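Troubleshooting log. The previous structure file for this entry was overwritten by mistake, so regenerating from the original sequence record. Sequence copied from the archived sheet and checked twice against the printout by T.R.
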Amino acid sequence: MSPRLQQVLAEIAQLTSEERSQLIEQVQQMQTLEAQPRKSWQDLEGAALNLLNGEDAQAWINRIRDEWGDREQQF
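Regenerated output below.
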């Protein structure tokens, strides 16, 4: 057992029963989060197919920028 773990266990021994229960819950939550597989950006591929309605992405960006430019000129 590492010295760091021994130190942590010594500190845990000083906690109340309620505090130890809370600690156990927190550690279990940490373990659950670590066990979940990380999502990949590739999982989003095709998620917004209808967003552009077939329009080229760069053309959409250019159109939106132009629209914002027109709005700024109005004010």
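The CA atoms of residues 58 and 64 lie 10 Å apart. Archived copy saved in two places this time.
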